[in-house]
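Practice problem: predict the structure.
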Amino acid sequence: MGAGGGARGVLRRLRGANGPGVRVSLVGAGPGALDLLTLRARDRLLEADAVVYDRLVAPEVIALAPASAERFDVGKGPGDSHRQAFINELLVELSARHERVVRLKGGDPFIFGRGAEEVEVLRARGVEVEIVPGLSSLLSAPALAGIALTTRGVSRRVALVSAVGEGGEPTPVGDLATHVDTLVVAMGSGRRREIAEELRAAGLELETPVASVEWASWPDQRVRWGTLEELGDWTGRAPAVLVVGDVARGVEGARE
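Answer:
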């Protein structure tokens, strides 16, 4: 590449690029919508030589990368799960071949995104890594539905939890719910009935307000409102974020 790397080299210098020695940028893509992407995330994609992205990243976001950039879909979907070890090795290999590698994750890479594991592997192999935070779906999905997770006199304690733990094992949520005012649950679409039973067993009232935000910020976003008594009978599509607590009661006018 010529001195400065041409137009892309100029852009990198003007924007500060990724910092000295950085090879991989771990970028949060937010909940989905292109206009909810951060400016820094956009800039990293515009400069990318290779992009490794997950299933829940909108095509419009991926399209920001140059046409010449290599693209790798490593998303985990039904019947198609790439081992994390494969993704780690792919990032290491790409960092040896390219100046700017973007690892693109839905939401925020450090909130139930396994981002810390990838950073640990890369740094252990001598690869410089930059973290570009994104809007976590656990926070932005409720906001997009009009739900304020903290409200004076209603909710001052909020817990974020994934319904699925290591190896796909279910994560208990009942005990946690008794210590907070609002519970926000990710990856709970397939466990709605179990979650409802756990929360009832923990002592939550049947009338406890519940909301489910599906595909937040995407064109087919859907919000369901109800109570803990109804939660177990709900059906819907992943990804969805569940909100349990009185904060869901404050948006009656928005109910479908």
